[in-house]
Write a structure and sequence with these properties.
Length: 878
């Protein structure tokens, strides 16, 4: 018995008759065909409905109680069971994919061959699953043979698989020559006068409805006949006119009758991502009817048939081409028909199938690849994404053009901006770095609090690409808790409500910082060279607020020698005493005198006294600063933003890939499981000290010493969820005083209500620590208990609150410390790596204070740096 072909399709057999039906109905003469469609929803049961539309073809329609579209991950447990039962009747089989989304079901099969018939670039279609690109990467690694549906699609895949073959859409000429009998017009034309300009096919985002409206309006006497189902778009958005006729989906058998009644055939495709690689089956079918054809400049039509098909680049030229087609002389028509017959003589679905069969018979099956065994699925606690890791493969060194270490925001952005020949490594089981999220008892928590804000248009565009509608924007509610009262953030602009003596000291200190004091200064700055950049920061020095109206001194006096002196010079001794010094000592965990000030800005900024005084006399209603309005994913935590990169990354993502050694001389990476990769280019986003450790003795002594000199602080986060809703209306709160172990609470439950379990509310307590200066006093359950008690102490929790979720996460590298040796140490390390073509970008590889939006841009710059290096290397090699 011949091998069965088990087909997984995103199209239903009884939908528009096109490539799958043409190929498989002919292959059915040689193989049993088992055609598995996307599942249908059933309220309670899981079962397979089957029918046979033609000899040797079995169409299988899975029914499941999961109300999710297509081969969604939630459907997989049900589909695996059904596939396992089905395949028992077909022990010898070939697996044939039309949709990569069905790849996880391959693990239920033992095919002698895997075929991927790539008929469209499905990832570019409207409502495409986010995982599709990554899952296609896995299909291309697993398939033994790949067919493509047209020349442009072939060009996009030929470098991604060693056995790709182009089989453009063909034609069943015997069927469509029936249209040459012009008296055999379809009865639907009876009430539609001529001339008729027709189109048949799916009417979706690929269809240029606006163009059709303009054609109909230009010539009201022309009758536009549109045959085909309307999908994925609102029918109400289609142009309506007395000379536009929507006839719906019609049987394949009736199509020649429609062609028999038309005067011009139309290919009115929109020019967008979804039509970039299409090869319309109907083009040759129109030719078989020997009718004039007018098309928009779809690549596969324009490149192959521009001598036969009129190509029009805009509405006026499209209308003009239709006019010319209707008025063409018999000689012109005869010339076009001659060309059509020449094209049709060289192709048919029968000959296409015979060529495919020969390739299938002569192509050996690959050995089991890790990508096949794992079916390209990575398990993620939050918003599972596809094809990011496989089971481990020992053995020979693998080659990768560009290796990217670290799948945090910078590494993800770099992979996004590079092409197929990249591998992104991360030691964790999910992408995101410190922007990951976890789930606990129905709550979603981030690794420390994250928000979305940026003044960069490109970053804002990226937010839209990565999240789409899964985002909401809100006005910031950031506060400071001190002296047993809440004041708005930033502290110096919202003193109202503090004790009068505290307000007085803050205002007088600010005045003295600006104009000087007749009294001897309590804190005198030491002489130093002023920093060079210019930026006025909030006294939190956390990058969260920049006050645009803050003025800057002309530096007639000496600049501050360190961060502590900076605070006194900028804000004065009152604000320094009551907030800036205690808060920054608490967060930075190192003596502020050991920190320099280049990261804060340059010339000494002067406090805006009017704002300070106004904020002391009355409540401040409007949040200040660049993140006064911020965004956050509606669902999935901040992880959703990170996972949003994955469908767009064309290279490979390797998770649970712990890099243990890097050899810049040999250009190799070794993983903890023994695998080795050789690279041409490398982008590292890992902390510089860790990178230097992995290089080992290949790094010179001065580089290793410089790396050891780089200081950082760590953060331990305690995530707590209580069984009470709406415990606060704030988004985050600063705690400068020593009566709490945490310096900040990020109110996760207000970042998005979807982060809360039903009936509950979640927060994150952030605690910085340093083994040298500020060891973590307790950990584990003791730390959790301490945070709960401190939350009760400051009024965040009540004594009777029931804690229903509690966990801690650790960030060993959290904030880089700008000590006085930092710049020199970083320069030594970066210079040496650059000599070895290792590009360093991101917070920890540049050893800079970066927010996530900076990290997005850093990844883009990293990709640009690699592209810039490529011609340099080629020139050197020559």
């Amino acid at each position: 018995m011949a091998s069965a072909i088990i087909v997984f399709s995103h199209l239903r057999w009884d939908f528009v008759y096109q490539r799958p039906q043409h190929l498989l109905s002919r292959l059915a003469q040689h193989y049993p065909i088992v055609f598995i469609e996307e599942p249908l929803h059933h309220d309670t049961d899981t079962f397979m409905k089957t029918y046979s539309p033609a000899p040797n073809i079995l169409v299988c329609q899975p029914h499941t109680p999961v109300n999710m579209p297509g081969f969604h991950d939630d459907q997989l447990p049900h589909l695996q069971k059904l596939t396992r039962q089905l395949v028992r009747d077909y022990p010898d089989h070939i697996t044939w994919f039309y949709t990569p989304m069905a790849l996880p079901l391959l693990q239920e099969l033992k095919p002698r061959l895997v075929v991927y018939d790539c008929m469209d670039e499905l990832a570019s279609f409207k409502n495409a699953p986010k995982q599709l690109l990554q899952r296609e990467n896995a299909v291309l690694k697993t398939a033994d043979i790949v067919f493509t549906g047209g020349p442009s699609l072939y060009r996009s895949k030929q470098d991604r698989h060693p056995n790709v073959h182009c089989f453009p859409s063909s034609v069943d000429q015997k069927h469509f020559v029936q249209a040459l009998d012009r008296t055999n017009s379809h009865p639907a034309h009876k009430e539609i006068p001529g001339p008729r300009l027709g189109f048949y096919g799916v009417i979706d985002e690929r269809f240029d409805a606006e163009l059709i409206g303009k054609v109909a309006a230009a010539h009201p006497s022309w009758q536009i006949v549109l045959v085909g189902p309307v999908v994925k778009i609102d029918p109400a958005t289609l142009p309506q006119a007395s000379n536009i006729h929507y006839l719906g989906q019609q049987p394949y058998e009736a199509l020649p009758q429609f062609l028999a009644g038309w005067d011009v055939c139309l290919l009115p495709f929109a020019l967008n991502e979804s039509t970039k690689f299409i090869s319309p089956t109907k083009t040759l079918e129109y030719m078989a009817a020997e009718l004039p054809i007018v098309s928009t400049p779809v690549t596969d039509v324009a490149d192959a048939y521009s001598d036969i098909v009129a190509i029009a680049h805009d509405a006026p030229s499209f209308i003009a081409a239709c006019e010319a087609a209707l008025l063409a002389s018999p000689e012109d028509r005869a010339q076009k028909i001659k060309g059509m017959r020449r094209v049709l003589a060289s192709t048919s679905w029968d000959s296409t199938v015979e060529k495919m069969r020969h390739l299938m018979d002569t192509t050996p099956r690959k050995q089991q690849l890790p990508e096949q065994q794992s079916a390209g699925i990575a398990e993620e606690p939050v918003d599972a994404v596809a094809n990011v890791k496989g089971l481990r493969q020992q053995g020979a060194t693998r080659y990768v053009k560009t290796a990217i270490i670290g799948a945090g925001p910078t590494g993800l952005s770099a992979a996004y901006h590079l092409g197929h020949d990249t591998v992104l490594f991360d030691k964790n089981s999910m992408v995101g770095g410190w922007c990951r999220s976890i789930k606990d008892n129905g709550f979603t928590f981030d690794y420390a609090g994250h928000i979305m804000f940026s003044n960069d248009p490109y970053v804002l565009e990226m937010y839209d690409i990565l999240l789409g509608s899964n985002v909401h924007w809100q006005n910031r509610e950031a506060w400071v808790y001190s002296k047993n009262v809440y004041t708005r953030y930033p502290f110096q602009g919202a003193l109202y409500g503090l004790p009068p003596e505290t307000i007085k000291e803050c205002i007088m200190g600010a005045i003295e910082a600006r104009y000087g004091s007749a009294k001897p200064a309590e804190q005198a700055p030491a002489p130093a060279v002023a920093p060079t950049a210019a930026k006025a920061n909030d006294c939190c020095a956390d990058g969260g607020v920049t006050l645009p109206s803050t003025k800057v001194a002309a530096l007639e006096k000496k600049g501050p020698a360190n961060f502590e002196e900076f605070i006194y010079q900028v804000w004065g001794k009152g604000i320094a005493k009551h907030f800036a010094i205690p808060y920054n000592r608490k967060i930075w965990a190192v003596p502020l005198t050991e920190m320099e000030t280049s990261w804060l800005g340059g010339r000494v900024p002067l406090p805006n006294l009017e704002e300070i005084i106004d904020g002391a006399l009355q409540p401040v209603g409007k949040p200040m600063g660049p993140n006064a309005r911020f965004g956050y994913p509606l669902r999935g935590g901040f992880q959703a933003l990170m996972s949003g990169f994955v469908p767009h990354i064309k290279g490979t993502i390797e998770l649970n890939a712990d890099v243990v050694h890097i050899s810049p001389k040999q250009r190799t990476i070794t993983l903890a499981d023994g695998r080795r990769y050789q690279y041409d280019n490398m982008i590292s986003t890992m902390p510089l000290p860790e990178l230097v450790k992995m290089v080992g003795d290949e790094a010179p002594d001065e580089v290793r010493e410089a790396a050891k000199g780089l200081k950082h602080i760590s953060v331990r986060c305690v995530n707590l969820g209580v069984a009470r809703e709406n415990i606060t209306d704030k988004h985050w709160i600063y705690y400068p005083e020593d009566n709490t172990i945490f310096h900040r609470i990020f109110v996760q439950g207000n970042a998005s209500p979807e982060c809360n379990a039903p009936g509950g509310f979640g927060i994150t307590c952030e605690i910085t620590y340093s083994p040298t200066y500020k060891p973590l006093p307790v950990s584990g359950q003791e730390l959790i208990d301490r945070c709960i008690q401190d939350c009760i102490k400051v009024g965040m929790f009540r004594e009777d609150d029931k804690v229903i979720a509690a966990n801690e996460v650790d960030m060993p590298y959290a904030y880089v410390v700008y000590d006085h040796e930092r710049a020199a140490n970083v320069e030594v390390v970066k210079k040496w790596f650059l000599q070895h073509d290792i590009v360093l970008y991101g917070r920890y590889s540049e050893w800079e204070y970066y927010n996530s939006d900076h990290a997005f841009l850093a990844g883009k710059k990293a990709a640009e740096a690699v592209k810039w290096l490529e011609p340099k290397k080629s020139a050197t090699a020559e």
